Amino acid sequence: MSYVIDIEDRPQLPIEGSDDTFPVRRIYCVGRNYRAHAIEMGADPDREPPFFFMKPADAIVRNGSTISYPSKTENFHYEIELVAAIGRGGRNIAEAGALDHVWGYGVGIDLTRRDVQQAAKDMGRPWDMGKGFDESAPCTALRPVGDVGHPDTGNGAIRLKVDGEVKQESTLDLHIWNVAETIAYLSEYVTLEPGDLIYMGTPDGVGPVRPGQTMEGHIDGVGDITIAVA
Ligand code: MN
User: Mean pLDDT across the chain, nearest whole number?
Assistant: First the structure.
């Protein structure tokens, strides 16, 4: 028995310093997880429970790629984010043991059609076409926990530059909901499985990137990502 159509293999991310790869199952994203970013988006920055949206797994883009400027937007935004890669699944995971479910970390960019997202917000419609489009989820090679520890238990820097100019600059300790808390909350809604990625939310300073520009992201101890827009 075989498939009646040709399909791609499951999307994969490289592992830093290894020929092995990480098979990506689902991409979950945390909304408004930095106070200053919540304020810049016009939201209430008080600590309400985290909320989530998704991108398709094949929205993954590898580090060093040149992406196309997406259709249907005139306000294409970068959002630099820590990415947690789930190695062990579960549901209703307790916060105390949640970090044991993390295989490793990467540096991601949650690319956003901001105008499409805003229109969806205004009309009470889903965000999917503002967030979950082709090439919307760049991510570096992953580094295992044994090498990087759990970066948001410290105050490492997270930043993003466009054409060499710093646009976003913050620290990982300013996540409103840390990785352990996020895994605990998310696993109350869905069963997490090995291969799931969680984009942990972006600091303030989001803004547009235009054709011909290059984004360079950095997270202390995790890595650097470079993505160009054709
Ligand atoms: Mn985001």
Answer: 96
